[in-house]
Predict the structure of SbsA Ig-like domain-containing protein.
Amino acid sequence: MDTTKRFALLTIGGVLTFLASLALYYFFFLPIEIIKTEPVGGARDTSREITIKVYFSRKAPKILSENVKVVSTPPAEWDISVASNGQSIEIKPQKELLAKTAYTLSIAGKRVTPYNFSFTTEVERFGIGAPEAQEAFETYEKTFPLLKFLPYRTEKYTIMQRQKDEYFVIVFGIYKDETDAIKKDVFAWFKSKGVVPEGVKIDFE
């Protein structure tokens, strides 16, 4: 085989190797972005039994089914299901939501870029308002003082809140070996926000 042909084969082989590596990076390391929601963020007068559709930048059914977490303020329990196309999920409340209340959902997970989504529910169905709703929401804001800062994401981990004084940290897979160092970083972040780490529960996942 002459030198030209050998060089051409080596070049083709290098290109194929590069493309294979790029594909592996794409599927195993590149973060998955939320590209849109239905209804859109900021929607008003939504149903208290709302179904939220969340669309992602690419198909990843296994990741979406096993890793996506939803935390809301005010707190509520949510069911998550992955669509058959593997590129979107549906989020539904397990119980009817409060009337005339602003909700903020924090959606995140391993390799899923954190995303905040807000909406306001409709008034009481029979025309009777819910005067306690705003008071309840203000109480939640006091209960969750870090609401405006969460979820907090770095290239190695994401901090989210589960309940009052209960937080959890998702450490991205390739940084699991650095958990001890990450804990120090997380504790420093809490102190910078005026929260004493020893006074709250922090789970590392």
User: Anything to note?
Assistant: Residues 156 and 172 are 6 Å apart (CA to CA). The chain has two domains: 29-143, 145-205. DSSP finds four helices and twelve strands in the chain.
